[in-house]
Specification:
By secondary structure, the chain is α/β, with parallel strands linked by helices. Helix content is 46%, strand content 13%. The strands form two sheets. It has a four-stranded parallel sheet with strand order 2-1-3-4, with helices on both faces.
């Protein structure tokens, strides 16, 4: 059976709709869904194109935060007519606000982001996570709020991006037995380091799925149990050398792993204050 395809539609960035959709998807093995985001939707033709694309999928869902009334109503009606489940996040919320507010809504897209310091901090954190993803530039490690470590396919990048949307500057470093960790890593305060680990059999399944998706042989060393055990043993050795806490990501949703990382970060900060 085909994976569900979720169409995220917004007349702004679409961050809110995507976060809500992913949070809900995590309750249904959400990592197996495909998400497509359509930001800055401001034309009826775009609404028609999105509904048409969703109709061509075997299983699809539309989630939106449109505030312009004509577009919102059209998307709801056209999706329902096509038999596509549609979730209007902003509509019911604005209707509830109209019952308690003393003025009508402005119905202007993107108001939350205008001159919003929090928004710009989030953008900066996302750009940081992209720049220092997968060990691209070790110079960013000392600037990071959090540094994630782990072998390939332990959710380092998704967790980094999730935390970036929470306005944390996150860098991540892949651990490979043949490659020495960057020297900068050993200068990062321990309370900013978190290792990610996973059960070997689960990692093998994930890697083999990845190999199949790339059209490569499942028999490559990347997916072999022997290689996986070697990499995980090496990662554990590095974690011990660094003295960093370790999170087991086996069967955890990205949000769950990220929240555990934040708990570790907060605990480290409290310990630091207690030693002063």
């Amino acid at each position: 059976m085909a994976q569900p395809v979720v169409f995220i539609v917004s007349d702004s960035l679409g961050e809110t709709a995507e976060l809500v959709a992913r949070a809900a998807a995590s309750q249904f093995d959400g990592h197996r869904a495909t998400f497509h985001r359509f930001p800055y939707v401001d034309r009826m033709e775009t609404v028609d194109e999105i509904v048409d694309r969703a109709r061509r999928e075997e299983r699809s869902l539309i989630v939106h935060t449109l505030v312009v009334e004509d577009l919102r109503r059209a998307l709801n009606e056209k999706a329902q007519a096509a038999g596509i489940p549609v979730v209007d996040i902003m509509g019911p919320m604005m209707a509830a606000w109209m019952q308690v507010a003393e003025r009508p809504p402005r119905l202007q897209p993107g108001l939350r982001h205008q001159l919003d310091e929090e928004y710009f901090r989030r953008i900066e954190a996302v750009e940081f996570a992209v720049k220092y993803d997968d060990g691209k530039d070790p110079r960013g490690l000392l600037q990071a709020d959090i540094v994630l470590l782990g072998v390939s396919r332990t959710s380092k990048t998704p967790v980094s991006m999730y935390l970036a949307h929470r306005m944390y500057k996150v860098a991540n470093v892949p651990l490979v037995p043949e490659v020495e960790p960057p020297a900068e890593l050993y200068k990062v305060p321990r309370n900013r380091l978190v290792g990610l680990i996973i059960r070997p059999e689960v990692l093998q399944r994930i890697r083999r799925e990845r190999l199949r998706a790339m059209g490569l042989s499942e028999d490559s060393s990347y997916g072999s149990m022997r290689r996986i055990q070697e990499e995980l043993a090496y990662a554990q050795r590095v974690f011990r050398e660094l003295g960093c806490p370790v999170v087991d990501v086996t069967n955890k949703a990205v949000e769950e792993t990220a929240n555990t990382v934040l708990e570790i970060l907060a605990r480290g900060e409290r310990d630091d204050r207690g030693r002063r």
